[in-house]
Amino acid sequence: MEHQQSKSFPISHVIGFVASLVLTFAAAGIALKTNLSFKVIMWIIGSLAVIQAGMQLFMFMHLREGEDGKTNLINMIYAVFMVIVIVVGSIWVLTSGHAAH
Amino acid sequence: MSAKVDTSLPLEYQTEQDRMNILGFWVFLGAEIVLFATLFGVYGVLYERFAGGPTHKDIFVIKDVMIQTVLLLTSSFTMGIAIFEMRRHNLKGLITWLVITLALGAGFLFMEINEFIHYAHEGATMQTSAFLSSLFVLLGTHGAHVTLGIGWATMVIIQLLKRGLTPTTARKTFIIGLYWHFLDVVWIFIFTFVYLKGLVA
């Protein structure tokens, strides 16, 4: 593994950082400066957020590194599944049906 | 606990104990993700319950939010560089980048405290509406994590200064690094689903 890193310049970190900045400002620009519908904007900036979070996990946090890399990946996939159940589930149950009246 | 040391790996992965600690921290982060998911869920349900009080557009200041975002994003990057320097066994570089990271983190906290004071002056407090209760709980929990992270990283820096780079201090540094990146990940979603969502025309 990259024990004795011969590289003296952290190129993947710099790429990740620049990409994060670009994604952040792109999301702000799309949300604040365009006339797209609310739904379309939320889908676009939501996707940009997911891409950016993924970049943090893989490029900065070394998610798949080491002998437990696979375990980490499964753990995070399960966490994402829980997030979707909790967030989407709560909003769905509490803003539709009887709650909507 | 195994005393076996595999020197072909980076310092923080060299002993079984340290590898288990790092794996355990990933599991903890999974639980933290669920904690924040519940807060995002509550905010997502209540975000338009203004109760006659201020709305998103009345209180959010996009310029300040962008400054906070860039501060935290940059601090996540500098934390990455700190770990990069650690892997090169450059203790001085590691500590320098850690200190820069904490300075950026402190800058973020300063901005957030000012933001809360600004909200309170606008008449937007935790008691005003369901929207503001859920907003303050979500932002406050994240801010409390950043505060904790600054204190934690300060203690790790002290250990690095006293003991130098060993498998144990390297593992501790790597774990605070994971925690710090995680805080930035949470912020990405706060930025998108709280601030930008609230300000969409």
Description of the molecule:
The complex is a heterodimer of chains A (101) and B (201). Helix content of chain A is 72%, strand content 0%. Chain A is built from three helices and no strands. With 101 residues, chain A is mainly alpha-helical. Chain B has one domain: Up-down Bundle (Four Helix Bundle (Hemerythrin (Met), subunit A)). Helices cover 79% and strands 0% of the residues of chain B. The mean pLDDT of chain B is 93.
Layout of strands and helices, then pairs:
The complex is a heterodimer of chains A (101) and B (201).
Chain A: H1 11-33, H2 38-60, H3 69-95
Chain B: H1 16-46, H2 56-59, H3 62-87, H4 91-121, H5 130-163, H6 167-199
Helix pairs in contact in B: 1-5, 1-6, 3-4, 3-6, 4-5, 5-6
Pfam families (chain B): COX3
Transmembrane segments (chain B): 21-45, 65-84, 91-111, 131-161, 173-196
Catalytic activity (chain B): 2 a quinol + O2 = 2 a quinone + 2 H2O
Could you name the ranges of chain A where pLDDT drops below 50 across 5 or more consecutive residues? 1-5
Helix percent band of chain A: over 70%
SSE order of chain A, one letter for each helix or strand: HHH
Mean pLDDT of chain B: 93
Overall structural class of chain A, as computed from helix and strand content, comes to mainly alpha
How many domains of chain B? 1
Hey, roughly how much beta strand do the residues of chain A contain? Answer: under 5%
Q: How many whole angstroms does the radius of gyration of chain B measure? A: 19 Å
- CATH homology superfamily of chain B: Cytochrome c oxidase, subunit III, four-helix bundle
Strand content of chain B: under 5%
Q: How many separate helices of chain B?
A: 6
Please give the CATH class of chain B.
Mainly Alpha
Task: Write down the overall geometry of chain B.
Answer: elongated
Helix run count of chain A:
3
Question: Major beta sheet of chain B, specifics?
Answer: none
From the N-terminal CA to the C-terminal CA of chain A, the straight-line distance is 59 Å
Distance between the termini of chain B: 57 Å
